[in-house]
Amino acid sequence: MAFASSSSSSTAATPPPRSYASAIEALNTLQSNAATIAATRAAGGKYNDWLIPEMVEYLERAGHSQQELDRLNVIHITGTKGKGSTAAFSNSLLLKALADQENGDGTVSTPGPKVGLYTSPHMLLVRERIRLDGMPIDEETFTRAFWRIWDAFEATADQRARPEVTPARPVYFKFLTVLALHIFLSMPSIRAVILEVGIGGRYDSTNIVPKPVACGISTLSLDHQVILGNSIEEIASQKAGIYKRGAPAISVAQPFKQTEAVLRKAAEDVGAKELKVLPEVAESPVSSIRLGLPGPHQVSNAQLALNLVDCYLKAQGIAKSVWKDDGSPSEWATDALASARWPGRCQIVPTSSATFYLDGAHTSDSLALCAQWWQLESPASASDVERTLIFNCTNGRNANELLSAILSAVANGASYFTRIVFCTNIPYRPGARSGGDLTNNMVDSNEVQSLSVQRDLQSAWAQLVKPAAVDNVHVLPSIEDALDTFKGPSSLKRQHVMVAGSLHLVGGVMSHLKDAGALDEKLEAVQA
């Protein structure tokens, strides 16, 4: 397989006005730069108290009331690890349940998509964040809705309650959240919507639905401490901020048991219908079924999705259960879980020159699970394999902790890998092509150009693997450069490429794989 090189691309011309390309350009201007993000984090406190009222104001300026959201029958999901996978499982279950209902009992509903899904980040295209019946919205739908919302914010700028601090248009993630909700509300056929939290929960832009059908929390661990708090209890409190009065509150069995008391108190304080903490994975009936998302850690995510969708079916009075009488998943639910897909998470992409093992794991816990998955798929005992690790992380994360998690989980430690590549998340060499959907302004450009994060990773690796040789470690400025490290290998061994540490990194690699024809439009592997 040949990857596209920078010489085969050129910088795109200025897109026509009101086109999809110009919409993406306009959207990218709403990304907060690194300095703004740092200032916002430092403000904390009083700034946080205004975030939800401000988001409600944006929704109203876009032409929708907060109460309208209740007719979307929202399943709201947060967590540190697995919230995206839980959303994917929930989406697959809902699609199967609603299709079976209409086919089985003659139910007649409004023609059109039935399930909306809002997640982040995207792998290749912004449109992936907003899905209808599992498929990203098309360019026409995105473009039409984008410019309608864009213009609405300009026309209502004088309606801001605090114009001195509230921008006329919301920042990137808030804008996309309003856009997604507008699209879902404008489709009368929608019967359920799954909202994945961006960061945290209590102050997240998605946390404006008054009466969700159910709220779920996947596995919690330490992450985004600058925003959410330095202790696991503080983080749990922020995540539990999505609980609502009268709505079932469900959590997976948490590795930090002290968080369950925090979740329980939060549920009681808000008047949630119940707090249900699911059994440990080893005790789960889900552990014995085949899941569409690989890895033993997906069992808890599938279990959470089953319980969330069960709440939805009961709330809607749909005479269908995700469970058999013996407590195991029903046949239709088992089929739905097996058909679930989620790009960039424990995904294998074979090509003619290498097999890629992609996972957006970016915490020490999730990286340990990712490395365990690599070992299952590419055992250290396989002597006919060369393994390349392509890795990056965002500034502020502990390089030693992240890399230690990988090294501790793989057999033979550093010798498991033939070469190590630390690169930025920039997909292509300078001048290769415009950023478009993959543009990320939320990083320090000086940091990227100096490769300071990558050099810190290199130093951390050298400290961890002493006295092992480190001459197989490379620091490179782009993903394109990283992929060049194993082009046309002189070795006759099979090439396995492990990519992790950042969803943006995985997305950049997937961009190259799609360019080369290894991924289809759904970002699924073309080769079986």
Automatic annotation (TrEMBL):
Location relative to the cell: Cytoplasm; Mitochondrion inner membrane; Mitochondrion matrix
InterPro entries: Folylpolyglutamate_synth (IPR001645), Folylpolyglutamate_synth_CS (IPR018109), Folylpolyglutamate_synth_euk (IPR023600), Mur-like_cat_sf (IPR036565), Mur_ligase_C_dom_sf (IPR036615)
Listed EC numbers: 6.3.2.17
Family: Belongs to the folylpolyglutamate synthase family.
Keyword Cytoplasm: yes
Annotated source species: Jaminaea rosea
Binding site for ATP: 345, 359
The organism's place on the tree of life at top rank: Eukaryota
Main subcellular location: cytoplasm
UniProt cross-references to Gene3D superfamilies, sorted A to Z: Mur ligase, C-terminal domain, Mur-like, catalytic domain
Co-factor remark: A monovalent cation.
Reactions accelerated catalytically: (6S)-5,6,7,8-tetrahydrofolyl-(gamma-L-Glu)(n) + L-glutamate + ATP = (6S)-5,6,7,8-tetrahydrofolyl-(gamma-L-Glu)(n+1) + ADP + phosphate + H(+)
Required cofactor(s): a monovalent cation
One GO process term, biological-process aspect: one-carbon metabolic process
Stored PROSITE patterns: FOLYLPOLYGLU_SYNT_2
Sites where the protein binds Mg(2+): 120, 196, 224
Name listed for the protein in its UniProt record: Folylpolyglutamate synthase
GO CC terms: cytosol; mitochondrial inner membrane; mitochondrial matrix
Keyword Repeat among record annotations: no
Pathway membership, UniProt: Cofactor biosynthesis; tetrahydrofolylpolyglutamate biosynthesis
